[in-house]
Amino acid sequence: MKDVLSTRPIWQRQKWPLRISQIPRTLNASEILVYLAAIVALFIIGCALFPQWIAPYSPTAMLADQIMHAPSKAHLFGTDYFGRDIFSLVVYGSRDSLIIGFSSVLAGGIIGGTIGALSGYIGGVVDTIFMRIIDVLMTIPGILLALAIAAALGPHLFNLIFAVAAASIPQYARVMRGQILSIKNLSFITASRSIGASKVRIFFRHVLTNAWSPLLVMSTIGLGASILVGAGLSFLGLGVLKEIPDWGALLSQGRGYLTVAWWICTFPGLAITLFVISVNLIGDKLRDSLDPKQR
Predict the structure, then answer these.
(1) Cα(169)–Cα(138) distance, integer angstroms
(2) How far is CA 135 from CA 140, 144, 248, in A?
(3) Fold that domain 30-51+77-290 belongs to in CATH
(4) CB atoms within 10 A of CB 163
(5) What 3-state class would DSSP assign to 90?
(6) 221-277, pLDDT tens digit by residue?
(7) Distance of alpha carbon 288 from alpha carbon 184, whole angstroms
(8) Helix (H) / strand (E) containing 84
(9) How would you describe this protein's topology in the membrane (predicted)?
(10) Where are the domains of the chain?
């Protein structure tokens, strides 16, 4: 009898009813892509946090006998015109690129979200003044606005972060204002007013807590755009002037050798592409998870 039971499927041998979490589920293609994107993003973030553990060479080590060598076992991404290991440069260069991306998204989200929240909740003259300023900023393309600010302030890490953040403030402000306007007149807000809750309490306890999720999704997706803008400014020579270049500066340094040493600028470009695609996939998944209509 025991042998007969052991050959039955698991759902026939289980004594208690199976829970849904115990039933194996096959991952679809989109979920597999999201998991792969998360792995790629975490690896690149790990490169930025712990480059000395991942890079096989020092980014400043110049090997005079291995100038512009093609990718090999010794140098996975090849070497540049100084004999530096491209893989090590890409690993160490990820730190400044991600600092620019994350810091600009954080600054732009906080400033733009605050402007949009106050504008939508207070309304009246405050809304008119804030939105007219945002309208003026939105008439200027984001990359052009960031380029003008970076050129005026000069090549410095803080200036680059400020330039990229300023270009994203109008989008965050518009999104947050729309969310506040759609929430502040709902029935549960009216009920809170009727029992004597203050405007400040209603704003922080009920309105703001229900309006932050679209801003979070937009920040996740905007991270890739911020890294692209920062790399573009570095490519144009407006980035950080350091001994260890970031991804945009690596692209700029290798463009003159594209026909003779394609790997110098190809692999930094692939790093930017992979990270941007990864965060966009994660942002799309996050949007589907937080949007009640998608659920």
Answers:
(1) 9
(2) 9, 16, 30
(3) MetI-like fold (1.10.3720)
(4) 24
(5) helix
(6) 888 888 888 888 888 888 777 777 888 888 888 888 888 888 888 899 999 999 999
(7) 24
(8) none
(9) Multi-pass membrane protein
(10) 30-51+77-290
